[in-house]
Amino acid sequence: MSRDPGRRAVVTGMGAVSPIGNTAADYWANLSAGVSGVARISGYDPSGEDVQIAAEVKGFDPRDWMDFKAARRMARFTQLAVAAAAQAITDSGLQITDANRDEIAVVVNTGGGGLDEVALGQETYLQRGGSRVSPFMVPMLSPSMAACQVSIQNGLRGPVVASVAACASGVQALIEAQRMVEHGDADVVIAGGTESAIMPVAFAALANMGALSKRNDDPTRASRPFDAERDGFVFGEAAGVMVVESAEHAEGRGATIVAEVAGGAMTGDAFHISAPEPSGGGAARAMQRALRDAEVAPDEVDYIVAHGTSTPLNDATETRAIRAAFGDHADRLAVSSNKSMIGHTLGAAGAMSALAAALAIRDGVMPPTINYETPDPECDLDYVPNVARQAPVRVAIVNGFGFGGQNAVTVFRRYEA
Questions:
Q1: Residues 6 or more apart in contact with residue 416 via CB below 8 angstroms
Q2: Is residue 278 over pLDDT 50?
Q3: Pseudo-torsion of CA 408, 311, 335, 267, nearest 10°?
Q4: 331 pLDDT higher than 60
Q5: Are 298 and 318 in contact (CB under 8 A)?
Q6: Looking at per-residue confidence, does 119 or 410 come out higher?
Q7: H-only helix segments in 60-136
Q8: In Å, how far are 39, 310, 399 from 317, measured between CA atoms?
Q9: How far is CA 113 from the centre of its chain?
Q10: How far apart are CA 95 and CA 83, in angstroms?
Q11: Domain-wise residue ranges, the chain
Q12: What is the C-alpha separation between 122 and 222, in angstroms, rounded?
């Protein structure tokens, strides 16, 4: 189906479960205040491990958001998504009825899905035998199950989509939502990303790769995107969900519109399984194509929510990509990374950044990059160091770059009828 230029995609509701708050409002307040959610791992005993820190969700009880029996049949990444989706639907004021449930779609992406359920099932099998393995393990571990459970829990019978694109997954969900609305596939899309895989084997693998920060004695200062002394990312968990709908549908029901999802694009590096292509060419092309899709000129962009992982390779490469995409305007852009506070939430990262972009437009606040202390000559942009900045934001873009060279960028714009 071709794109209908008369159908514009807008954000009307938001939900979040994060290391710095279990509602979108708390997440945004703490993000703007520069609060770190990084601490010593509490989900298991990390003593003796190279990496002992993470950005964990704290105080989350799935029974606050869903039936306990249903929650027991969900992996944690799904529980987080169902909670964030419930918040977003309530925030949007959307009433789900038999008259509209067929026109509401779900797009919730992830990077790893229920990896923790695989590990738990294998441990149960080895210790207690095959008869004690949960019959729900396979549907629980499926990466598509977060989207499916959001659909099931809310009775939504439109398209249900889940994509796995590593750390670009969350951004891809918003691009998919925008396109579904513009192409008339749905009036409303519940869209976002989720991840929860804080488990010893994942940390061991990433530590052996050299990807994780080992600042175990100073957790709140461990994630330091674009800083010269960055030594790797901090693993995090989260879920971020938005209600995206056509502007006509939103206005027709009197909804408050936070921002417009104006465009998006995806590219590939075709370079390496984990390292970004050094020139940043693929990432730059994604930004350029996203702006073209949104019909936004580079000099109209005020703010970039960066991928900004706090790894030596990513941050320098992303800086080069931004300069390639924006030219001289790169020096007038504000760029910040919420990963300095919530860590790298992988499949949820782009969705958490999308929330920040939309709220920056709504409130005229650019969250900081905390722990920025020592400038790196290879990272020479304005990273909104350490303290949030109040300034009008008309256009904000969100970058998401994943293992294997998957690049995704989405553009948010202040909505004008």
A1: none
A2: yes
A3: -20
A4: yes
A5: no
A6: 410
A7: 68-72, 76-92, 115-128
A8: 28, 11, 12
A9: 14
A10: 17
A11: 9-252, 263-413
A12: 32
Distance CA 114, CA 369 (A): 30
Record: fold of 9-252: Peroxisomal Thiolase; Chain A, domain 1 (3.40.47)
- Selected catalytic residue, list 148, 249, 272, 307: 307
pTM (two decimals):
0.96
- DSSP secondary structure letters along 270-300: -S-SSSPPTT-HHHHHHHHHHHHHHT--GGG
Per annotation, catalytic residue among 148, 183, 272, 344: 344
Predicted confidence (pLDDT) per residue in 183-201, tens digit:
999 999 999 999 999 999 9
- Catalytic residue check, 167: yes
Residue at token pair 């294997």:
404
Q: Is the pLDDT reported for residue 258 higher than 70? A: yes
61, 78 Cβ separation under 8 angstroms: no
HSE of 208 in the Cβ direction (CA atoms, 13 Å)? 6
User: Is-catalytic flag, 344?
Assistant: yes
Q: Phi, psi (5° rounding) for residue 354?
A: -65, -40
CATH topology of domain 263-413: Peroxisomal Thiolase; Chain A, domain 1 (3.40.47)
Whether the Cβ atoms of residue 89 and residue 97 lie closer than 8 Å to each other: no
pLDDT value at position 2?
58
Q: Which residues of 349-365 are buried (b: 16+ CB within 10 A; e: fewer)?
A: bbbbbbbbbbbbbbeeb
In this chain, the answer to whether the domains covering 9-252 and 263-413 adopt an identical fold is yes
How large is the angle between the packed helices 145-154 and 76-92, nearest 10 degrees? 40
Note the pLDDT tens digit of each residue in 346-362: 999 999 999 999 999 99
Return d(Cα 149, Cα 92) in angstroms, integer.
19
Looking at residue 1, its pLDDT comes to 46
Written as six digits, the tokens of 407 are: 């690049």
Task: Report the pLDDT averaged over residues 146-166.
Answer: 97
For residues 139-149, give the mean pLDDT. Answer: 93
CB burial of 297-330 (b: ≥16 within 10 Å; e: otherwise) equals: ebeebbbbbbbbbbbbebbbbbbbbbbbbbeeeb
Report the pLDDT value the prediction gives residue 3, as an integer from 0 to 100: 67
Clarify whether 379 is annotated catalytic.
Answer: no
Quote the pLDDT of residue 135: 87
